Amino acid sequence: MSAAQRQEIYTPYTALIGHSGLDAAFNHVVQTVELMLGSEATRLQQQNDHLLQPVEIMGAQIADLRGQITNFNGQITVLRDDRTKLQTQVERLQEKNTSHLKKMVSMAAVKHGATRRTHLAKGRETRAQVWQDCKARVMVDNLPPPCQELPDVVISSKEHIETLVKRTFTTDKEMYGPATSCLQPIFSFLEGHFLMDTHAHRNPDGQPDLCVYRGQRSMLTISTFVELKVQPNLTDSDLGQCIDYLFAMQRYQPGRSVYVALLSNVMKNVVMTLRFSLNNNDSPGSTRGDSDYHPRITLTGELTLVEAIGMIVHYLRIDGYDAPKSPFSPELGALDSIIGSPTSSVVGVFQVPSGETRELMAVKVVPEETAGYRHEIDLLSPGPVHTPDWTDWTMRNTVPDLVWDKPDNFEFGIRPVGQPFRKRYMPTTRSMQGCMRDVLSALMWIHKHGIIHCDVRTDNIIIVPDPETPGLEITRAHAVLIGFDSAANAGKITHYAGGYICTPPKLLEHMAMQRRCQLEAEKRVSGRYTWDTGDDTFQHVQYVPAPADDTFQHVQYVPAPADDLHSFIVLLVQVQYPHSFHRFDSGGVQNPDSFEFSQLQLM
């Protein structure tokens, strides 16, 4: 402050306190203000220092986090490298597995008419490989020409047949017309039959050259067929093609006893038959799956064309050797397709009769009313079992609806109509996991209502694709549990009627124990031996003496939810490791000394 400014401030007070007193007062005030400002500055500096300490700490923490991020990035790089290596190994294993699977022919697939579809792309299993595999499985029997008289209708046409044999053909197509003209009168002599050249009509692809139909032109009514070849020798590919056609006939006509065909180049002729026999003379009334039947193929060669035609005509006169009449009610209308052939029944696809939309249903028909048929109707009919959880959409999608029933013809219709349980309909891991969860949900639902399915296997599961998913490009699908004809009430003693592969562990253990008792008894002179182990594990199982070839029909047990869950685990193993079940003869489960019995016990 300048002297002039001080003088200007001091002047009013000079007269009052004098010059000396005013200077002292002013210096005191200045000192006081300076002291206050210094204290405030010190306080602000301390506060600033206090605020800067967390910033420094946060800076150190940020630097530490940056170091950790760098370490994590290094670990992620290592994990990515490991993932790449694992993906490479998985691809190699998949290629190896695919290579092995191509060498195998699943007889379950063969039973569904899929040894090799005629419309499969090149590169898949060839017809020659199918034939060679059938021989490797000891499925083929060669029979000598039969010693039987020719039918009169064949004798009357013998001259025409011999004229056909003497002709020369350069292509297969040249043979169809003359062969049809020659053979048509012979097969027309059989009641309700007629022969047709399929190449001269608009028939679905994949039918044989000359087909003998019964009543109408359809795969459901083919009694036999003639496959003509122009080459001088009949090859394995030709034989494999006939096997394809025979299995296709079996798929559409599951009720027949024998399927007959003729492979010919007019000079060399082979009559081929296909029949299926129950494993170990199983009871016809039991519920078994497709894998519980053994296909047998017979070949009769060294025949003239006259003898071969006579043999075919003789076969078609035998009951069960020609196409059966349609088992479905006429009111159902046109049959869309045959989708299943369980034991003693047929399953076809029709439109729902009372539906306003073109909705499809799967109709199952049985030849006579059985306990399994009535039980399945009772379970699927709307009633107390369905009502409690029927609002649960998850549960509703995993169990079929009964939409049509005709008791007087022993047939009923359910929906939805799905695809067989095949991995190609579950292309992704997520879709397969979802389908398996659906099966488990269905089991939980029926167990909640006191029902045990007793037959959880691939034959009794269908895959229903998402309606928005076209064709086989399936990305979303759900599974539906079907086949309740073997179901039983929980806690009530009954006979086991499910598939061999679904046999409950307690029945296997009981059968093993009975076998041990039998072996011990054979060692005793008296021939009778009672074995008491002190173990009450099998008190819930009762054994009724029975012939050795029909064990399951005489074993009584108490069904429990654990039985279905065990079958579900076997199903999981079968899906994940299909090669483990390659050539698994399920009929061997009846024999406690068999390999199949011991394998099923280990699961």
From TrEMBL:
It catalyses: L-seryl-[protein] + ATP = O-phospho-L-seryl-[protein] + ADP + H(+); L-threonyl-[protein] + ATP = O-phospho-L-threonyl-[protein] + ADP + H(+). Signal peptide: none annotated. The keyword Coiled coil applies. It comes from the Eukaryota. InterPro entries: Kinase-like_dom_sf, Tyr_kinase_AS. Keywords: Coiled coil. The keyword Coiled coil applies. One of its GO terms (molecular function) is protein serine/threonine kinase activity. Its EC number is 2.7.11.1. SUPFAM superfamilies: Protein kinase-like (PK-like). Residues 76-103 form a coiled coil. This is non-specific serine/threonine protein kinase. It comes from Sphaerosporella brunnea. The lineage of its organism: Eukaryota, Fungi, Dikarya, Ascomycota, Pezizomycotina.
